[in-house]
Amino acid sequence: MYCGQVQPIQFRKCLKAWHWREYEQVKYQVRAAVDGDNSRNCSSPRIDSSPLCSGRKEDAEMSQQHAVNGVLPKGKVLTLETMNPHVKKVEYAVRGPIVQRAVQLEKELREGVKKPFTEVIRANIGDAHAMGQKPITFLRQVLALCAYPPLLEDNKFPEDAKERARRILGACGGQSLGAYSASPGIECIRQDVSRYIEKRDGGIPSNPDNIYLSTGASDAIVTILKLLICGEGHSRTGVMISIPQYPLYSAALAELGAVQINYYLDEDKCWSLDLKELKRAVTEAREHCHPRVLCIINPGNPTGQVQSRECIEEVIRFAKEEKLFLMADEVYQDNVYAEGCKFHSFKKVLFEMGPEYSSTVEMASFHSTSKCYMGECGFRGGYMEVLNMDPDVKTQLTKLVSVRLCPPVPGQALLDMVVNPPRPEEPSYNTFIKERTAVLAALAEKARMTEDMFNTIPGITCNPVQGAMYTFPRVSLPQKAIDKAKEEGCVPDMYYCMRLLEEEGICLVPGSGFGQRDGTYHFRMTILPPAEKLKIVLQKIKDYHLRFTKEFS
Q1: Distance between terminal CA atoms of the chain?
Q2: How far apart are the C-alpha atoms of 370 and 214, rounded to whole Å?
Q3: Sign of dihedral through CA atoms 77, 81, 82, 87?
Q4: Which DSSP helix (H) or strand (E) runs through 293?
Q5: What whole-number distance in Å separates Cα of residue 234 and Cα of residue 177?
Q6: Quick one: what percent of the chain has pLDDT higher than 70?
Q7: Residues in contact with 245: Cβ distance below 8 Å, sequence separation at least 6, in sequence order
Q8: How far apart are CA 57 and CA 514, in angstroms?
Q9: pLDDT value at 376 more than 80
């Protein structure tokens, strides 16, 4: 027993889901090797090998039962052996086994089970409202009016909110949010998105026909990947993603059967993107696949870096030279905190580089209502803008989005408030600006607080949180702790984070879920908790880390 809080056998039980997915990954790597097809694993993040632990051998034997005359012993049509093999390769650490255990602990606390803590603090995901951030008044007023139109007669609502609501409802079938919209989204909202982009980018034109509304940015990202991924063997599409990366990308590539091409961000230079590393990654990948896509997250998730204009120019030149489709994930574009840092949209830089680039480089950029100052994750609003897409392919894109009918209409309405906020002459403007400024200022202060605190802890180093909503500190683990983790059958930073959850009630995501260089360990933590609670979280992590290090020194 360690620290008197959890028995080793219970700890192994908590990790069982993690072990199972590791087993499945290894099993399919072995099968690929036997079949002579290693190409789809090129440049994949390396994970420390872990021995089988109790229960895994039995699970493996059960999963490998062979069908007799095409019929499985239990008579099930859908089993682990007969299901889509790509789905079994999908991993999404942000909602992985640690989060599942956090849910279990919350239930146990409600049932009166004694723990060393009184609440579970979920610092694993960028869910602002769940962490206590208050909704922006204007956004919710317009949504309320749209959802229940009789409120339009209520004089408690400002006239600019009513005007927005009437316009949105007028564009909805039957003047109701409950009606389907056009598959690319409500036309007047797409026009507002286009005007928003033009204003953001200093007047560079944006065509509403290039705007597709989506179920958050994630839906749009996966849609574009579906268009791009094709081929078999060495001709299979390769997609370049940063390491560390947001697990949506690796999960989508696994599901779609694409080749993941890793390029590593430079931790020693504040997670900067290096052109030489991009060239290394694409050159090595060409031996296994056909690189066609380059994904960039700016500001970065999980690393919080903000790309300079010079860096973006280099990336665009690289994409043109290598004939790569650019995917610019820009959902944190309002979340920039560090002095000297500024958000530059890829589209703006692309056009300012001149026609040689602006008329040839194919690109899709993405934004969402879930991040920035809004934090409206549950409404699932978002958009993408496509540039220089072949007209015939664009027709196929429109067909593809029509299959899902339309994005959630309440999410579309919310997006319209983000891109068409109150103007200075309108009654809601002062309150809107005050609330927006307060949210972003609080995030900037918490970014500095987090960096400062982590850098006082021996064995933890943290780069400046220049933007986004997360910190990704590096943790030095004693060799005895690494050995203990492997003995328990899991990767070291997973062991570290699970112990933290069990002992302090703090839910973080291990760096191995995002990818990291061999021999390094990290965790991702959101900076979203209220400042006072964040101070408590940081102190608990400090106390835990010192205790953990002492135990294994």
Answers
A1: 17
A2: 12
A3: positive
A4: strand 290-297
A5: 47
A6: 86
A7: 262, 297, 514, 515
A8: 27
A9: yes
Which of 100-104, 151-155, 209-213, 536-540 has the least mean pLDDT? 100-104
Q: Reduced to 3 states, what is the DSSP secondary structure of residue 430? A: helix
CA separation for the pair 138, 144 (Å, rounded): 10
pLDDT surpassing 50 at residue 7: no
How deeply is 454 buried, as exposed, middle or buried, from its count of CB atoms within 10 A (0-12, 13-18, 19+)?
Answer: buried
**Pair 224, 254: CB distance under 8 Å:** no
Which residue, chain included where needed, has tokens 């999963």? 63
Query: Which of 121 and 71 is assigned the larger pLDDT?
Result: 121
Q: What is the DSSP string of 214-278?
A: EEHHHHHHHHHHHHH----GGGSEEEEEEES--HHHHHHHHHHTPEEEEEE-BGGGTTB--HHHH
Q: Note whether 94 and 125 are within 8 A (CB).
A: yes
Is 483 in contact with 553 (CB distance < 8 Å)? no
Question: Distance between CA 464 and CA 299 in Å, rounded?
Answer: 13
Whole-angstrom distance, CA of residue 259 vs CA of residue 253 = 7
CB 524 within 8 A of CB 488: no
**Residues recorded for the chain:** 553
Single-letter code of the amino acid located at 514: F
pTM attached to this predicted model: 0.83
CATH of 95-132+434-552, one of 3.30.1540.10, 3.30.1360.180, 2.50.20.20, 3.90.1150.10: 3.90.1150.10
Contact partners, residue 542, CB within 8 Å, separation at least 6: 453, 456, 457
* Token output for 334: 């309002």
Mean per-residue pLDDT of the chain: 86
State how far the Cα of 241 lies from the Cα of 230, in Å rounded to an integer.
17
As a whole number of angstroms, the distance between CA 418 and CA 412 comes to 10
Amino acid identity, position 419: V
* Spans of all domains in the chain: 8-64, 95-132+434-552, 183-407
State which fold the 183-407 domain adopts.
Aspartate Aminotransferase; domain 2 (3.40.640)
- Amino acid identity, residue 337? Y
Cα–Cα dist 423/531, whole Å? 30
Q: 71: which strand partners?
A: 68
List CB contacts of 269: < 8 A, sequence separation 6 or more.
Answer: none
At 81-120, the pLDDT tens digits run 877 777 777 766 556 788 889 999 999 999 999 999 999 9
**In the prediction, which pLDDT does 438 show?**
96
**Helix, strand, coil proportions of the chain in percent (round to 5)?**
50, 10, 40
335-364 pLDDT tens trace? 999 989 999 999 999 999 999 999 999 999
d(CA 81, CA 485): 30
152-205 confidence digits (pLDDT tens):
999 999 999 999 999 999 999 999 999 999 889 999 999 999 999 999 999 999
76 near 495, Cβ under 8 Å?
no
Residue at token pair 């953001």: 200
